[in-house]
Amino acid sequence: MMNLLILSCGTRNKIVQAFKKELGDAGKVFATDCSELAPALYDADDYFIVPREDAEGYLEVILSICKENKVAAVLSLIDPELSLLAENRQRFLEIGTLPIISGYEEVEMCFDKYRMFRFLQENGFRTVQSYRDKADFQAAVATGQVTYPVFVKPVKGSASININKASSEAELDLMLNRHEGMLIQEFMDGTEYGADVYIDMISGEVVSIFIKEKIKMRAGETDKSVSVKDDALFGMIKQMAEKAGFRGIIDIDIFQVAGQYYLSEVNPRFGGGYPHAYACGINVPKLIFNNIAGTINEAAIGDYKENIYMMKYNEVKIMDRN
Fold first, then answer.
1. Strand (E) positions, the chain?
2. Phi and psi (nearest 5°) for 160?
3. Please, what sign has the CA dihedral across residues 138, 140, 144, 146?
4. Are residues 66 and 26 in the same domain?
5. How high is the mean pLDDT in each 10-residue block of the chain (322 residues)?
6. What is the pTM of this model?
7. What highest taxon heads this organism's lineage (predicted)?
8. H or E, element range at 68
9. Are residues 155 and 168 in the same domain?
10. Which end of the chain has fewer CB within 10 Å, C or N?
């Protein structure tokens, strides 16, 4: 049996469904959440209501679930839990459970936007110009390296929380004074893309890349998108992901301005738009199950059709508590 545990499943029903479909009768897909009203729980074979991920003793609860249910691999769908999984990788391995996550240092780099910017810059990848220090930003403005408007966002943050556009120094000061730990980024006036990337857990090689042009966004997630291909961007993504040492599934934000691609943020988990990739044949659950079984995946980068559209819409889950 090859059992899988999906942590903090929330509303990500499509991902739970995909894992169940690919696993079939070879095992069970378990899910957890801190709320019994998380709809994705009820698409799993079985589920567990657990404390919040920041509660004392949370890790022990998850380790116990893994041990008692012979869980072969575990993954999380929310940012706050990823560092916990990566940092405690050895504890999971000791009970026979493989965390599907990059290493702790790589995960932490993803969650520090300035640190990620420096990594990309120092390794020769085009990226979004970023400033931690206002004086450095003002010097860049004075020399014409950057102009208003700019984006102001938390150095460590997710779901597009506290991200604002500043069109003047007065607006910039207002936003910088409102919150601590903010980052100033140049405004990228172009097309935004997302990439769902799988790096083999065993070989460390990028084996799958799916690129989508983002048509409509909501709260940091893609609502509408269309599949596209570009060999130059495939190469850029593969080189960056392998250079950084990522493992498993990652989600990358990319901008195209004046015909040039700029790598932006990396999320070391399933992105909200992954169902688009899955519908186009990018079978990350299968790649994960292969790795759990000790099989190295062969690279099949760009193995999907272009011009396939994704359009999200609301569904309803009904639960009878009687």
1. 3-7, 29-33, 46-49, 71-76, 98-99, 130-131, 150-154, 164-166, 182-186, 191-199, 206-218, 221-228, 248-257, 260-267, 309-311
2. 60, 30
3. negative
4. yes
5. 96 97 97 97 98 96 98 97 97 98 98 96 97 90 90 77 82 85 91 97 98 88 94 98 98 96 96 96 98 97 96 90 84
6. 0.94
7. Bacteria
8. helix 58-68
9. yes
10. C
